[in-house]
Write a structure and sequence with these properties.
Low-confidence stretches: 430-521, 526-534, 536-563
Order of helices and strands: HHHHHHHHHHHHHHHHEHHE
Shape: extended
Strand order of the largest sheet: 1-2
Distance between the termini: 108 Å
Number of helices: 18
Mean pLDDT: 77
Number of strands: 2
Helix content: 40-55%
Structural class: mainly alpha
Radius of gyration: 48 Å
Length: 567
């Protein structure tokens, strides 16, 4: 049976585990003492041979071999490999225990869902419960050596009362090369369907719940079967075993005490018993023994699962729940706290200290805050803080946008927006309408410069370009009177902002049906560019064209002129 010591370590105290070191059943001493004695005997035999049977030349050679083995024994990754292996084994061990099928949920569903206090109802509930116990017995008989020794044949199963002789004939008549632990589950579903048709199960919800619980039970049986079939890869177990055994075989030679007279480093003492080597063997070999004992918990070791005890408990409890306890209810009475709005169960003298402890209200219940920090702030100050945070976030977004690399599509769209915005500002710069304010100009400038144009598009070079139309410019641009001196002085030239200087040229192509508003052509001859002159303050100009915009800047032109293109 599993060794249980939970009550002995219920409270932490001085040297609480020291009492457990003297236990023998299920202890490391019982598991490891044979290997420990064998290791110590081999070490002693090699030590006696070195001291009394080898000549001087042989001793010198053995000493060199011992130093070599001791230096390179640490290259074996024993701790790393063994630690991961034991962790995997422990997790698998607990998962197998949680996969053991228990009938508690099914028996509660059967007791409340299958109606009938007569003999047929009782027979129906007991038969359904026996089928679940039979399925668990068949799967445990397939994976546990202790259960198989108890029920070696199907005759023992029939004789134990888990199966009738007619059911055995039905079971053996089903020819299948696979394990047939699932057959009683199918019998359960068929019988439950009959009970539903007969009205023993009142509604479909109860019938559905009963089948769901059965499927969960059968799923755990299947998991046990697969845990038994799919083991931890053999290569992993071999690697761990070879690492541990090879390390200690090397230690048999490398950890020998050599002659102190030879002056070898680290061999100043000559002891006969290698205390720390034996402790190292005890820990690492014991670690491997833990994995060896837990890798299959359905055996007959001291700490293996008590499969036979589980079978007895589950069968007895399940039958009692669906038969003797069916409809058996105690008389309902008023409890002793019927008229008490604050019931307090009593404490014994050994537990009175619990009353002295205050009830836990939360981790922040006793937190102290200074009084000056407990006053609510006016909403106006909060809104100002929010505006500052929004402005800071907006500036950060603009900075991130400048740092970002735009796409080629963004380049072209930015260039077109800049050209359109500049044309619009040129048109408005000569307009006498005072409704256009400087704020509107700034908005349009920000909209026109939204797309950044790289130098690769040629817009920041010294060669002037302008959007060419399919006909004379004067025919497309209306005559607009020039602005007054005050308006001109109060407004900056929109073409003087930035590195890009936009200029106008016209193409010789005049046979287009639709004006080409987005093609750029160079102006080669500076003599053909009309540079506007500033007007006197009191001068009167009836109208100027778009090409005579004030403060128009013209960049330098190359000396080599190409085709003549007139404005």
């Amino acid at each position: 049976m599993t060794v249980t010591y939970t009550a002995r370590v219920a409270n932490a105290r001085f040297c609480g585990f020291s009492k457990l070191l003297l236990a023998w059943r299920g202890s490391i001493y019982k598991v490891l003492y044979k290997e420990f004695l064998a290791f110590f005997a081999m070490y002693t035999a090699i030590s006696i041979t070195y001291r009394f049977f080898l000549v001087d030349d042989q001793k010198r050679y053995f000493e060199k071999l011992s130093i070599y083995c001791n230096n390179y024994a640490s290259l074996i990754p024993m701790s790393f490999v063994l630690g991961f292996y034991v962790t995997l084994i422990v997790n698998r061990w607990w998962s197998q225990y949680t996969s053991i099928p228990l009938p508690d949920r099914i028996m509660c569903t059967l007791s409340g869902g299958v109606q009938g206090g007569d003999e047929h109802g009782r027979l129906l509930r007991r038969t359904l419960m026996r089928y679940t116990s039979l399925s668990a017995l068949l799967i445990l008989r397939s994976v546990s050596t202790a259960v198989f020794k108890r029920f070696p044949t199907m005759d023992h199963v029939v004789e134990a009362g888990f199966m009738t002789r007619e059911e055995r004939k039905k079971f053996e008549s089903l020819h299948s090369p696979y394990n047939k632990y699932w057959v009683p589950c199918v019998w359960f579903t068929n019988l439950a369907a009959v009970a539903r048709c007969d009205g023993r199960i009142k509604d479909d919800n109860t019938y559905k719940l009963l089948l769901e619980e059965l499927n969960n039970f059968r799923g755990k049986c299947s998991m046990l079967f697969h845990y038994d079939m799919i083991s931890i890869p053999l290569v992993y177990t071999q690697v761990v075993s070879l690492a541990v055994y090879s390390f200690f075989l090397v230690c048999l030679i490398g950890r020998q005490f050599l002659d102190p007279g030879q002056g070898y480093p680290g061999h100043d003492l000559d002891l006969y018993v290698p205390i720390f080597t034996l402790l190292q063997f005890f820990f690492y070999a014991g670690w491997l023994k833990v994995a060896e004992q837990l890798i299959n918990p359905f055996g007959e070791d001291d700490d293996d699962f008590e499969s036979n005890w589980l079978i007895d408990r589950n069968f007895q409890v399940s039958m009692m729940a669906v038969d003797e306890m069916y409809g058996d209810l105690p008389v309902m009475e008023r409890d002793r706290y019927w008229n008490d709005s604050n019931p307090r169960p009593p404490y014994t003298a050994a537990t009175l200290f619990v009353l002295r402890k205050p009830s836990f209200q939360g981790s922040t219940f006793d937190m102290a805050i200074p009084k000056e920090e407990m006053h609510f702030q006016p909403l106006k100050e909060i809104s100002e803080n929010l505006e500052e945070s929004v402005t800071r976030t907006h500036n950060l977004a603009l900075f991130n946008r400048l740092l970002g690399s735009p796409s080629p599509t963004g380049f072209m769209s930015g260039a077109l927006r800049r050209t359109s915005a500049q044309l619009h500002r040129l048109t408005r710069s000569v307009s006498p309408d005072p409704s256009f304010s400087d704020a509107e100009d700034e908005e349009e400038e920000s909209a026109g410069t939204a797309g950044s144009v790289p130098s690769g598009l040629g817009l920041d070079t010294t060669e002037s370009t302008i959007c060419s139309f399919g006909g004379p410019v004067d025919s497309l641009v209306p005559k607009i009177p020039p602005p007054t001196a005050q308006a001109s002085a109060g407004r900056k030239s929109p073409l003087a902002l930035g590195r890009v200087n936009s200029h106008f040229c016209s193409s010789n192509t005049t046979n287009r049906s639709v004006p080409d508003l987005y093609s750029f052509q160079p102006i080669r001859d500076p003599a053909k560019v009309m540079t506007p002159k500033p007007n006197p303050p009191n001068s009167k100009v009836e109208a100027v064209s778009l090409l005579t915009v004030p403060s128009l800047e013209v960049s330098a032109f190359p000396e080599n002129s190409g085709k003549e293109q007139m404005l």
